[in-house]
Amino acid sequence: MQLLARRVVPDSDSEYKSFVQFDRIRFDCDDSNISFTQKFIAHYLNSKERKQMTNSMIEPLTLWHAIIVIKSHANCASTKSPLTLNDYASLPPSFGLKENQRHLCYSLFVKYERWRVSGQYWDEMDRVLYILKFGPTVFREDTFLTWADRVNRFGEMDLLNDEGEPLYPFFADIVFADEAQDFTEIDLVLFAKMSSSIRSLFLSADPAQSVELGVKMREGTVNDVFHSLLKDGKQQVKEVLQYI
Questions:
Q1: CA pair distance 99, 118, nearest whole angstrom
Q2: Whether the Cβ atoms of residue 85 and residue 103 lie closer than 8 Å to each other
Q3: N or C: which end of the chain has fewer CB within 10 A?
Q4: What angle do CA 116, 24, 129 make, to 5 degrees?
Q5: 170, 182 Cβ separation under 8 angstroms
């Protein structure tokens, strides 16, 4: 992701971000990154907010997972922004948490964002949204049309390099994502937009082997991702999924 982010050139210099590794937020880590549990939970939240978390049975990892969902749901790839409170509260039960817990998590997410911006920190969801927002047209536009289709049907030759090959590192003929259970929904959307065809994306995943804290691949994750990309109806999604 870092290579993609480095190659992105926003129209305005004020939008440019370097994503310095030392400013990256992780759930828990040493001094090489910014610790969510130590810096945000333990030192930024006040005692009343931490007590609310305890009373609502919200563990730090539960809140971290909620923040990841809010910032990396497949719909975020279209809006280029986090879910609204209403959108988050309306997610199906498979995303976990009761209504009151989701409202609390969202209010803490809002505070998390203020803390993140004031400290000039970033998380992985910020980097992916940055790529989707300021990258090539394939990434930016809501309507899903692969780079190959854009080149062949509309002559968007800027998506190719001087040798006529897909523009590196943004595009490839085939994209294979191993250990896909450790990627978020917007990661999977990005992978689909990097491939030459929706049928040229290959995912290998086992949710039982997940090691990325806070990222949970649900039974319907892949289905939801393709529904967000292919908006022409369930039949088209069904036809695509049978090849995956």
A1: 29
A2: yes
A3: C
A4: 75
A5: no
Task: Give the integer Cα–Cα distance in Å for 177 and 183.
Answer: 9
The pLDDT of 26-35, averaged and rounded, is: 88
Longest dimension (CA), the chain: 61
60-72 and 124-134 are packed helices; what angle lies between their axes, rounded to 10 degrees? 0
pTM of the predicted structure, to 2 decimals = 0.91
Distance CA 97, CA 108 (A): 14
**CA nearest neighbour of 139 among 94, 90, 107, 187:** 187
pLDDT in tens, 31-58: 779 999 999 999 999 999 999 999 999 9
Q: Provide the CB-side half-sphere exposure for 158 (13 A, CA).
A: 4
pLDDT in tens, 104-158: 999 999 999 999 999 999 999 999 999 999 999 999 998 888 999 999 999 999 9
Per-residue tokens: 238 = 């069904």
State the pairing for strand pair 34-35/175-177: unpaired
Would you call 85 exposed, middle or buried from its count of C-beta atoms within 10 A (0-12, 13-18, 19+)?
middle
- Phi, psi angles (nearest 5°) of residue 231: -95, 15
